[in-house]
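In the previous chapter we treated chains in isolation. Here, by contrast, the input contains three separate entities that must be folded as one system, with a combined length of 882 residues.
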Amino acid sequence: MSARLQNSGNKYRVETRTRVSGIALVTSLALLVIGFVLPAFVGRSVIQDMFFILTMLTLAQLWNMLAGFGGLVSVGQQAFVGLGAYAMFAGVILLGLDPVPAILVGGIAALLLAIPTGFFAFRLQGAYFAIGTWVIAEVVRLLVAQWKTLGGGTGTSLPRDATGNIMFVGQIGDLFSVRDAAARDILAYWLALILAASTIAGIYWLLRTKRGLALSAVRDNMEAAKSVGVDAQAMRWFVYLTAAFGTGLTGALIYVQKARISPDAAFSVQDWTAYVIFIVVIGGIGTIEGPIVGIILFYILQSLFADYGSWYLMALGILGILTMLFAPNGIWGLISKRTGWQLFPLQRRLILDTNTGGKNG
Amino acid sequence: MLLETRDLTAFYGDFQALFGVNITLDEGETIAIIGANGAGKTTLLRSISGVLENSADMVKFEGKSVGDMPADALVTRGIAMVPEGRKLFPSLSVEENLMIGAYCGRAAKHWNLDAVYELFPILREKSRVPSTSLSGGQQQMVAIGRALMSNPRVLLCDEISLGLAPVVIKDIYANMPKIKATGASIVIVEQDVGQALKVADRVYCMMEGRISLTGRPSEITREQVHAAYFGAAA
Amino acid sequence: MNLIDTVVQGILLGGLYALFAAGLSLTFGIMRLVNLAHGDLIVMGAYLILLFVTVLGVHPLAAFLIAAPLMFGLGFGLQHFILNRTLGKDILPPLLVTFGLSIALQNLLLQGFSADSRKIPGGALETASVNLGGVTVGLLPLMTFLSAILVIVALNQLFYRTSLGRAFRATSDDPVTAGLMGIKPKTIFAQATAISMLVVTLAALYLGMRANFDPSIGPARLIYAFEAVIIGGLGSLWGTLAGGIIIGIAQTVGASINPEWQILSGHIAFLIVLILRPRGLFPRAYD
């Protein structure tokens, strides 16, 4: 938690922990435990809703890492959602894999796609980068739609013998006394919980390390960062590849649960980019707490108003505009400003050790 | 008194650049502001010209409080600046740069394209050329001409000698009397102390955001300037 | 498959894409604003024209002349009240605000006009054709292409021969120093967006007469427009035309090989140009 610095007699240390963050840590661990045992207490539709929340949260945290912390504003992450999902389908249909390990195939495929697309995208700056990522996503969508074995333009479903024999589903069904379909949902939910928790933990760890500082420096001023020895290119590659991998895994997981895929759905700008950006921006970009607040709000809005179709979407769009104009740090920004809370503290404070030979404390 | 600043303070974020600066400029006068890098000279000019906005009363022009007005409002009223580093528009030719100086629409009392070309004949030859392909000295001429095109009552010159060879600097300053003769009141910010003392009626020296010396060039000594410029022995 | 025929169709298609792109080139060039709602604004223009045609019973051209000043005012207001607040060093705010605008617009149109495909009736224009030295081309595509050229010539005249145009270029170079000349950058930006809306309305007229449209097609038009602008290079309107033509030809050639490859071919051409020339073919403005 703290590092020692020497300065002619005075000892300083760097601290990030706050009192509130300590409480938040304990609460998070408790929530995680509750999350795991949740299926014992709630019905299938709650589990499905939780799955939606957790997967969207993961996508939002990854986009936030890319754009909020990394300064790489991509409007094309749907490329990785879609490709991850399709690679998983390919693994199941063409290679006969069980859908669960096929999720990993999805992540790896997305990672591989990120390599050439990264080369291309990093030649572009700012707005050009954003449009470039979008075009790439469109190209991938159009190419995948040509892949007839996986359904071409209309898409396909996971075969019954694959969905009927997913690993662990039988045991889960026995454990919770539910039928196969519900057990599949529980398995997907647990995987989503693990994915979301590890993504958040991973991003937080990254930002706490020197790499994370370097990342913020690159985002704020690339030339200045380079001048102090930060390998800006390496940093950008690192976040781009990591985000792609995570997004691919999430996409694959989402479509394991859906079991049916089509290019327009898997590469949908609305579902995988518009909503994600909305969640991050309204919640609070550039903080880990932001997307968490954002998904909660989004879920509430979705549950209450999705039936209103286009009015709802129009309101979302307007809400996004108003937030960006008047509260650019989102809801969490407003909360944090009032209360000074940092649940996932990233600010490094320099603390003067008044005790000579002092201890951590 | 045409222009004055009253207790002018200025900040860049948390950093205070000016601590209550008071200067005056009478009609027809030329004043010079000298001082080391970082003393606040450019900040002072940016505050007067409206690039930096302050409280209304901190800058008074023709008796009116203008400290909170933006640059575009002030040039229309008659305060024009030759910015530090010249800041010509790369997308515009030499002539277009001059023409845009007249955008604010002030009455063309003396300065128009022909008058500027008379002052700086070389520019007439280069009028269609992209402004950035000129030499440093020629670019400075364009920058000065551009500011003159608005027929200002007050001309602010920010470090016009920067980056120029001594003979070029002399050339440019040789034109100052012609500009003065048309009735402009001039504020010159300069690092070249010698040149500044030659053209100015009065001099202000700044150090660390404050005025450290003021007077007529004929009345102040080298030692005083030295002390005011660099500060007394630390 | 007649190659010449295909290429000519591609060139004419490029005219349409250049029309989509010209307004964007203007605003992107002057204020580096990425307006993600640009395509949706074109679609909105088409609906507006259609509205006047059906409600007032006038000819599409007349409807265009009525719609144009409305769109002009809308553009000015949009920039003045909303987009000017987002401009600054950070590219995120304008991107996100215009993204929100795009979503809001699409759904507003959906509510107002339903998802049904519509078309602006072009009458005889739709089927008329002209023989150009052996190649038969539709009159409408030809008019579209010629309009694109006209618009670009007009905009260039504005940029290079008028005081306003000088102010546009100066503001694009350096908004702070432009202020020292008496230019109000925010007003310039609003004027630029207003003018670009005029071009958007013209593009909407041709879009609507040429084929069916519905509220969801905005984003695809945006992509073509941006591709044309980026291929052409920042600040070059003729470059934008060249960009449109390149995409148009790529699309028609691709389509002639396999109709499913039309859009993909356009994107691939874009990516290839961008790999070779990240700043576009004829960049003029200074990034």
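The beta strands of chain C are 129-132, 135-138. The CA atoms of residues 165 and 273 of chain C lie 29 Å apart. Compare these points with the single-chain example from earlier in the chapter.
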